[in-house]
Every structure is written in structure tokens, then in C-alpha cells.
Write a structure and sequence with these properties.
This protein is α+β, with helices and mostly antiparallel strands and 154 residues long. It has 4 helices and 5 strands. 31% of the residues lie in helices and 27% in strands.
Length: 154
């Protein structure tokens, strides 16, 4: 079942987040506490709308995003989206995106937007699900400390 995220989903969602980003190709070492903080921050804005896919009470996927006003209409900005590694490539991710697209279209959203790493499996997944790369937009990064972030792979 795919439904809107509830604050009571936080711990289970953080476990999925940790497991997904610990796997290849990300290999990121998120603590459960840090994953909970990240999800809580993303879901705390009034514009935040999240989704979970669950089966028998177990969270399988978590999508965190925000519906923001833009010139051509509301955009749903996907901040984080991950599927439990043991069920990736099962269709759950595509089902979540389809559900979100239909629900947000009904609420007047005009587009879904996101950032992902070029060349990673996530790029192929999003292309398969109707996303295209922009020729006119670039992702830019500026460290605000004297050293680079040790987790940055851009």
C-alpha cells in the first residue's frame, strides 16, 4: 500500500533510508539517528509531502518532497527517494512514482523535479519513469568551510 508519510513512520523510514544508502553505489554510512534527523528535517516544512510504501506494516520505500510554487505551476521537488535494497528492481519504486504523480496531478501540480547522480542506477531508473535531464540547468556546489565535505562525491 502506498500512502502519505506520517510522523509515526519516522523510525521505519529511517531504517530503509540507512539500508538503501549503505548499499552500492552510494556506500554512505548513515547512523539511524542521522537518518531520522534528515527525514524529520525534510518533512517539517508546511509544503512537505512524503509517501511510504508499506507491506504488512513494514515500510519498503520512502519518498520525501515539497510542493513549491513555480512560474508554470506547482512543482513537486523530490528531496529523497529510496527503496529497501532487498526489494529494489521489483517495481515498488515505479509504483510509488506513479501513485505520487496521479495524486499530485489531481492536486494541481505541474511537474516533479529532482537531482540525482549522473551515471548511477538512479539516473536510469528516473529516465525509465519519464524524467529527462535538463540541458539548461546545472547543479552547483560551494563548500562553506575551508575543507571539502568528506561525503561529497560530486
Amino acid at each position: 500500500m502506498i500512502r502519505r508519510y506520517r510522523p509515526s513512520d519516522l523510525k521505519k523510514a529511517a531504517e530503509v533510508f540507512r539500508a538503501a544508502f549503505a548499499a552500492e553505489p552510494w556506500n554512505e554510512d548513515w547512523t539511524l539517528e542521522l537518518a531520522e534527523t534528515r527525514i524529520n528535517e525534510l518533512m517539517s516544512a508546511p509544503q512537505s509531502i512524503g509517501y511510504v510504501s508499506e507491506n504488512n506494516g513494514a515500510v519498503q520505500a520512502i519518498l520525501c518532497g515539497r510542493k513549491l510554487t513555480y512560474l508554470h505551476g506547482a512543482e513537486y521537488v523530490i528531496d529523497e527517494f529510496c527503496v529497501s535494497p532487498d526489494i529494489q528492481r521489483s517495481g515498488i519504486g515505479s509504483a510509488v512514482l506513479d501513485h505520487v504523480s496521479k495524486e499530485l496531478t489531481g492536486e494541481g501540480a505541474a511537474a516533479m523535479v529532482l537531482l540525482t547522480t549522473r551515471g548511477y542506477p538512479s539516473e536510469r531508473f528516473y529516465i525509465k519513469n519519464g524524467f529527462t535531464a535538463s540541458d539548461t540547468m546545472i547543479f552547483m556546489y560551494r563548500p562553506i568551510k575551508n575543507k571539502e565535505c568528506s561525503n561529497d562525491k560530486t
